[in-house]
Amino acid sequence: MGKKRLFIAINLPEQVRKKLFEWELKLEQEYGLGEFRGRSINWVIKNNLHITLVFIGYATDDETYEIAKSMKEVAKQHQQFFINLERIILGPPDGSARMFWVEGSKSQELADLQNNLSAKINQLSGAKYNAYRPHINLARFKSNVSRIIKEKGAIEKKINYQFSVESIELMQSNLKRSGAEYTILELVELEGNEPR
């Protein structure tokens, strides 16, 4: 029986994906990175832009069914909420500067959702996630590109995009030479009334 490579994500509305993809093109031009495309820098294609909530790894069909079932149970405990995307920076926070990523304002609703999903799927108890900043990976690059970017000074592009989180998705990732291809296996709506 084959296994699927899975993660749980929040997929972005099309208008937000479009705006972030436009930023990818602007950053590539501003830093003169066109010649490195596909070699030392890999940009995330527009349809793959998302916020990862829980990375699961490889799972059988039976495990996939149980994961989807757990997602539905967790979704019943959470209302819709808003995420605010604030800036584009170099990530991750450890200072290695291997990515362009979008950072949002801290969200306790998002942290609670992530915590409950992790606890349910991993059968953990007592683990708590503090409010944290959601992030979206725009590009991953090698050290030679990182040097070029740093030579031009610190990057921080202010943005202001807000969207409502109405569902979570169980995603399958197929790794290919051309990059990852994502398929939605299950879309689970967050139950509740108005966004908070």
List the helices and strands and how they pair.
Layout (H helix, E strand, L loop, with lengths): L3 E8 L2 H17 L10 E3 L6 E10 L1 H15 L5 E11 L7 E6 L3 H15 L12 E7 L1 H9 L4 E10 L1 E10 L2 E11 L7
Antiparallel strand pairs: 1-3, 1-8, 2-6, 4-5, 4-7, 5-6, 8-9
**Oligomeric state of the chains in view:** single chain
Count structural domains: 1
Mean pLDDT: 87
CATH topology grouping: Cyclic Phosphodiesterase, Chain: A
Structural class: alpha+beta
Using the coordinates above, name the CATH class. Answer: Alpha Beta
Helicity level, as a percent range?
25-40%
The name of the CATH superfamily reads Cyclic phosphodiesterase
In the CATH classification, which architecture applies? Alpha-Beta Complex
Structure description:
It is a single chain. This protein has 196 residues and is of the alpha+beta class. 29% of the residues lie in helices and 39% in strands. A five-stranded antiparallel beta sheet has the order 2-6-5-4-7. Helix 2 packs antiparallel against helix 3. It is globular. The N and C termini lie far apart (43 Å).
List the keywords.
196 residues, 4 helices, 9 strands, 39% strand
Summary, kept brief:
The protein has 196 residues and is an alpha+beta fold. Helix content is 29%, strand content 39%. It has 4 helices and 9 strands, in the order E-H-E-E-H-E-E-H-E-H-E-E-E.
